[in-house]
């Protein structure tokens, strides 16, 4: 049996008022299309006034809901919704992780909720089916690309929950897909031309990729701690490389610069020895007196002299150090062959002037 709204006479499912006294369900069922048509007409007749009205309504709503949502609530200790570790899904990431200081979660880690099937925003802690420019632009004032850049995610990572991902995968094929990719590449080229950073560049490996490979800064330090536990002392670079079968040393150098910097980051005693130019040259002279030959790179690697790194740091080469120490130079002569040559004082001064 059809019923009439007691307010405007429209057909309704129940005898309710369609104005303030109507329930939300009845209002949606009976007046949704009418409301949309009226809004579209107002936008056509007076767009400036209608946009101002919509902005005023949005401001009033945000004033009543400062947290951004009726359902969203934070715990008293300031932790976001994903405070329960049992409700978190990590896809391929290897702990430990670096805490995201500006908000919630971890750097380079996209956090999902098992119960909600949604992804967490790093800045406000809220859960969304998809983190798009709607939330990121209006609330945090950034695009999705800028968001990934700030939190250490790859540009290819999808900011969406698993349910949303499955729905998108079930969609039919988009014939305009290649055209959209061409437009994206064009925008990228324009960005590079303006001198802005290329957000899709693979030169700087994203923290998310490092978390997947186990080479993020915190994971590398954790591997050094494990080496300390196994050896019972602070490992040298050679001991760490031998213990990990040649892995992770390159990542440590790329992240911390040197092995010594990484060890100092943990507050451990280092094996670093600070050499001066005079000490390095004296070591060469003493070696020449004892062994009656000029020191070579292999002698430095065997520990008979300071490391070759120290010589390359203070001098422009090992032969440059030999010139200053006044010991014979080592000249390459064919494959894997070399011979020593002692220059005269005049030749020595001429060679030093050219360096």
Can you summarize this structure?
With 355 residues, the chain is mainly alpha-helical. The protein has helices at 24-45, 47-64, 133-139, 144-151, 162-169, 177-193, 207-213, 217-231, 237-243, 249-256, 259-265, 277-291, 297-301, 308-314, 318-325, 345-354, and strands spanning 3-4, 11-12, 88-89, 112-113, 119-120, 127-128, 329-332, 338-341.
How would you sum up this structure, described in words?
- With 355 residues, the protein is mainly alpha-helical.
- It folds into 4 domains: 3-64, no CATH class; 81-183, no CATH class; 215-265; 277-354.
- The chain has helices at residues 24-45, 47-64, 133-139, 144-151, 162-169, 177-193, 207-213, 217-231, 237-243, 249-256, 259-265, 277-291, 297-301, 308-314, 318-325, 345-354, and strands spanning 3-4, 11-12, 88-89, 112-113, 119-120, 127-128, 329-332, 338-341.
- A two-stranded antiparallel ribbon has the order 1-2. It has a two-stranded antiparallel sheet with strand order 3-4. It has a two-stranded antiparallel ribbon with strand order 5-6.
- A hairpin with a 5-residue loop joins strand 7 (329-332) and strand 8.
- Helix 1 (24-45) runs antiparallel to helix 2 and helix 12 crosses helix 15.
């Amino acid at each position: 049996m059809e019923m009439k709204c007691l307010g405007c006479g429209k057909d309704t499912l129940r005898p309710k008022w369609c104005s303030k006294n109507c329930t939300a369900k009845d209002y949606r069922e009976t007046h949704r299309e009418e409301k949309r048509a009226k809004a579209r007409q107002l936008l056509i007749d007076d767009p400036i006034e209608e946009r101002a009205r919509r902005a005023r309504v949005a401001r009033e709503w945000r004033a009543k809901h400062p947290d951004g949502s009726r359902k969203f609530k934070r715990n008293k200790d300031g932790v976001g919704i994903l405070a329960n570790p049992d409700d978190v899904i990590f896809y391929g990431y290897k702990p430990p992780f670096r805490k995201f200081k500006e908000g919630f979660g971890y750097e380079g880690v996209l956090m999902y909720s098992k119960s909600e099937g949604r992804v967490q925003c790093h800045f406000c802690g809220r859960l969304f089916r998809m983190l798009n420019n709607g939330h990121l632009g209006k609330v945090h004032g950034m695009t999705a690309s800028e968001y990934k850049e700030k939190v250490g995610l790859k540009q290819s990572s999808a900011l969406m929950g698993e349910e949303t991902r499955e729905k998108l995968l079930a969609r039919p094929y988009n014939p305009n897909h290649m055209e959209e990719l061409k437009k994206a590449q064009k925008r990228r080229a324009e960005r590079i031309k303006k001198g802005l950073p290329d957000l899709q560049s693979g030169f700087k490996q994203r923290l998310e990729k490092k978390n997947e490979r186990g080479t993020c800064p915190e994971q590398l330090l954790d591997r050094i701690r494990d080496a300390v536990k196994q050896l019972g002392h602070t490992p040298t670079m050679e001991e760490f490389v031998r213990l990990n079968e040649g892995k992770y040393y390159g990542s440590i150098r790329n992240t911390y610069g040197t092995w010594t910097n990484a060890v100092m980051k943990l507050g451990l005693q280092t094996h670093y020895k600070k050499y001066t130019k005079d000490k390095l040259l004296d070591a060469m002279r003493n070696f020449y007196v004892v062994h009656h030959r000029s020191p070579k790179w292999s002698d430095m690697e065997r520990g008979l002299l300071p490391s070759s790194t120290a010589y390359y740091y203070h001098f422009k080469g090992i032969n440059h150090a030999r010139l200053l120490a006044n010991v014979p130079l080592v000249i390459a002569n064919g494959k894997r062959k070399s011979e020593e040559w002692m220059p005269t004082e005049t030749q020595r001064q001429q060679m030093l002037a050219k360096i």
